[in-house]
Amino acid sequence: MRWTAWWVLCAVAAIGCAEREDAIAVSAPASSFEAGPPCTVFAQGTDFGPCAATYLGGPGPDQANAVAVGADGSIVVGGSIAGNDFGLAALRLTDADAEPGATLEGSGVIVRLDPSVRVVESMTRFETAIVDLDVGSGGDIAIGGAFGIARLDASAGSLRWMQKWDAPADRVSLGDDGVLGALSGKTVRLFDERGASLGTVVLTDDVVEDIVVDGASQSFVVTGSNPGGGAGCATRLAFVRSYSYAGQIKWDDYAFQATDIAPHCSSTAGRRVAMGGDGKLYFGGESTGGDTIFAWDPTDITTRAPLVAGDSYSNPYNAGRAQIVFVARLAAATGALESGTQMVARAVEGEAGPSLAASLTLRALAADREGNVLLGGTSECCIEHRDQLSIAGQPVGPFPAAGAEGYALLLSNDFATRRLWTTFTRSHGAPTAAVALSNATGALVANVPAGSTLVTSHALQPDPAGGAEAFVASWKTR
Questions:
Q1: Residue 311 burial (10 A CB sphere; 0-12, 13-18, 19+)
Q2: Which one of 178, 362, 364, 424 is separated from 442 by 20 to 30 angstroms, measured CA to CA?
């Protein structure tokens, strides 16, 4: 136990947080595992030294779906954990819309850990799993799930407001101006700091995968994919599009549905958008094959994009039908592409010629104030130096027989240097679900299938507790 904090939890109306006589006060001592040396900046190379890498779980199935770095440097994880509060008195929020004294208690959790993820600072229980979360510049935490959305204070101990609707919230984003954007299927809902609605925008795209709010330009940006349409040779085409809060389109990148894009016929999809700490917009997508619209200006298919291409991992030759990751830095106000790169895994090198590409997928994206970019997803063999990788001196396991494993990839701000590219695989793979990069700290979460194991280090929970497990790791970047 490190310290004890007393939290007074308040119920709220839809437009703000108000104190109530029946608010709950609970004792919440931090749970810690003091082990290993002080956390220092990781050294670039094949042996990755995180501050810690640990399971977070109970005896049943657990999930870690989202991660962010708090304003105080804490690691904030959202998901579900049943049967384990890590020795804490879990925080339980009161629900103003329920019976007096009723709480939003369930398997859903917001876990706040110290920057080294060696100390659980608090656990906040929620009625259902947290599907996504974001931390605003002021420290407030936005969460989304089957319940709708909610906004909490930086400690996750006070519910500022909550909005419920029938459709689950898939993605949430907090702008620097306090505006919260939520994506439910193809519907975007916007709310101000007090929970008042700023409007709803129903999109007509085929698939919408992510949203980010840019408070500086008072815009929200969405990404996804549509059928190729008049483009002819590509079955699907990615889009990245900016809207005003009133729902008017400001700019529309890769809008080539009515354009003959041949011979750049690889299908593409937008996966993630994120605002970096540098105020730039970051976009992550995938293409099936290497001849893709991502190699070209997002508004002009005849003009080459300023992409960084170096070795065989950032030059998608011999791609075949492999999935290739694309990441770019855009001007948030205009959508202009400033720089970017493509990344691919490689099969084992053979004597007959250059190695064939292997699929690399993107499921997580973050960027810090220096413009460094952190990616996560799955690899189908093999990331660079795969057979030499280790975690704090422990060799990672062989590539999974099932054919995929999670990865973390940290690119320098010029996209030219891979500062980190690793996996935590021990016996089986686990996809990276989310990443965070802020306050000189990187973090990832993964969902580990039952029976699979990952490499842990200085762990709060070194071994699985049963069933599917949540997993979290953090490291210092400077």
A1: exposed
A2: 178
Side-chain half-sphere exposure of 129, counting CA atoms within 13 A: 15
Minimal CA–CA distance to 125: which of 98, 103, 149?
103
CA separation for the pair 470, 461 (Å, rounded): 10
Close Cβ partners of 356 (under 8 Å, ≥ 6 residues apart): 318, 320, 322, 346, 347
3-state SS assignment for residue 79: strand
pTM, two decimal places: 0.91
User: For the chain, what's the residue count?
Assistant: 478
Residue 346 neighbours by CB under 8 Å, 6+ apart: 312, 313, 355, 356, 357, 358, 381, 382
Which tokens in the block code for residue 20? Answer: 């109530």
Sign of the Cα pseudo-torsion (212, 214, 217, 219, in order): positive
Tell me the C-alpha to C-alpha distance, in Å, between residue 113 and each of 30, 69, 156: 9, 10, 12
User: d(Cα 25, Cα 420) in Å, to the nearest integer?
Assistant: 43
- Residues 366-422: pLDDT tens digits? 999 999 999 999 999 899 999 999 999 999 999 998 889 999 999 999 999 999 999
Alpha carbons 183 and 171: distance in angstroms, whole number: 5
> Could you give the 3-state DSSP secondary structure of residue 183?
strand
